[in-house]
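Hey, I'm writing a tutorial for new members on how sequence and structure tokens pair up, and I'd like a real worked example in the thread rather than a made-up one. If someone can provide the structure for the chain below, I'll link this post from the tutorial.
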Amino acid sequence: MGFNCGIVGLPNVGKSTLFNALTATAAADAANYPFCTIEPNTGQVTVPDPRLEKLAALAGSDRIVPTHLEFVDIAGLVAGASRGEGLGNQFLGHIRAVDAIVHVLRCFEDDDVTHVAGLVDPVADAQVVDTELMLADLESLERRAEGLTKRARGADREAAATLALAERAIAVLRDGTPARALDLGALEKPLFRALQLLTAKPVLYVCNVDEGAAKGGNAMTEAVAAMAATQGAGMVIISAAIEAEVAELGDAKERAAFLAEMGLEEPGLNRLIREGYRLLGLITFFTAAPNETRAWTVPAGTRAPQAAGCIHTDFERGFIAADTIGFDDYVALGGEQAAKAAGKMRTEGKDYVLAEADVIEFKFNV
């Protein structure tokens, strides 16, 4: 199954530069003028996970296969996008197609890089995009409410429940608050997802800073952090310029030396990828065998048969059991056989909900 994060923001904030570094390609044009990116660019990104090396060493694996996320570089939004300004309707459609939003904010001064508003203010920039997404959601819900009202009058219970939820969302949006702020019951969540609201998507703010602020941030990133805290959103600080240079270095030692010079322990993109993973509510489980050690991505709350189906549909269809060892036990005891001998291998059934870092061998019969 695929999981993707859409990279959004105003024009000229560094979205495409960040995407190119993230995917180590030149897939996205990067230039100093608005709407340089028209069609969204898509790239698969490896999720960094040092646990794989430990598991592979113990399992004697021939190869390591990490898990991936997909990032989508979406063209810059402008004020009025919900009314079609700057080809806004097209871009809003691209945002609707992703699972989560990575919102890039310019947090650096540079007279050589144009700002569409003529003033660098990342909080104001965030509000421009948030407003356009909320206006688009309002328009969508108000249109849908008319049809739902007619169906609800005809004793359609699902329509009545959806209408009540839509009316709550409309009230929140009119108050200037994203729809994700709604407190939902378990039965409401599927109906809410079906509304496909832009402001229901989880958000990660990425503060694009100059090289000097890459380690500790600056006054602008502090303002963004305060804003993110009020929204329950995530925030990371990255210098797209540094990340672009790191991406061009082919040797791992060169990359490490360059980062050390900048006072950084790892690429900022690693933090971004991990935050994207967390943002989507994902967990990792592992399979470890002599042929390969592999990481797999599933949503938190996934049961064993559905996790098995990520490997092959036959595994889910013929699921019998899942022999499971916690990562810490697997490593501390020295591998599968030692963990089994110590009583740390559990045989789990179809109702088992996976935990983060489970090491699993699925039993199936087709």
